[in-house]
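Please, structure for the following, as tokens.
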Amino acid sequence: MSNSVEKTFSKWRIYIALAIGLSISIGIIIYSFTRTEYHRTETGKGTHSWVDTNHNKKVDAANPEEFIVKNQGDYAQKTALEVLSEINWSTSVFFWLLLACIGMLGRDFGYMLRLRILTKNQLTWRQSFKVIMLWEFASTLAPGVMGGTAVAMFILNKEKISMGKSTAIVIMTAFMDNLFYVILVPLLTLFVPVASLFPESGNDTVRVIFWTGFGFFTLLSFVLFSSIVVSPKLVGKLLTFFTKIPFLKKFNENAKRTGQDVETTAHEMRKEHFSFWLKAYGATLISWCSRFLVINCLLQAFLNLGIMQQVHIFMKQFVLWMFLRVSPTPGGSGVAEWAFSTLMHDFSASFILVSTLAVLWRIISYYPYILIGSIILPKWLGKSKNRN
């Protein structure tokens, strides 16, 4: 188990995750900076005129086929540097960028608070911070489809929480995270048309992926809930079943002990008052809402958006999150930037600006965990070895 943690945090995994993430970000920036766009100018001072070639009544600033050369036209071609140089770096921009950073702090605070609630304050705030940072660090190194959940129970175990209890806590956190998704999506669609959540291009494909994923996570929520609340013996049975595989037989005894520990912890959790679960789920809401509001604040910093547009942005992030969950790359690198640019392009005519904001979003929400995790990890591993 100790080896599992160290393998996950091995140097080559860190270097690969950094290489992939940085190369994709640099690639997107280069791609954006080598493009040109057409922007509306004062009447008669442009070099091109717009023609609605696809008859969608919408100006596609990045599509040269929609613009024809015309003296005294209404549109002019601009480079990426020209577009970005026109950004007014006012105090309002820095204010919303600050709120975006605070949103990331809110996300981590919610996770730490939930962890303390579920462990009944067995972990200090300092320990909770280390666990969450290492948990997120593992997520940046693992494919999005796997996440850092698989190694989280071992991280908790290193903090002197039994493996069974660690497993039960990780299962409950996964359940609450999925429950946020399962509850909020139907609720918010009462205020926002479902069709508006998906991009015009490739709408059907994105729609199928989204609703298939939603159905899967709804089913997963039921399975996770059942494994702790309805039938705690289920986890133990699954563990012992898998350890019947020849190369896993050596873990059979550990699997049985873990299963028994999970069952004991589950029975203790079932006795908790409703307020206990309400607090834990409240912390989950704080974390996820803060995570989503990072993008809301980031877009508001550079675009003048109304309340309903902000609601749309919040809702679109459920689709964005789905793509991150099925991503085969470390931390969703590449998929995250593509999905952001595709989904948020509706709020700005400038593809260059949206692509740049996608990279800025990743700088705020992804790379800090690699940096912080790399600082915490060596000392944490040293201490955990001494405990053993």
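DSSP finds 15 helices and four strands in the chain. The CA atoms of residues 110 and 382 lie 27 Å apart.
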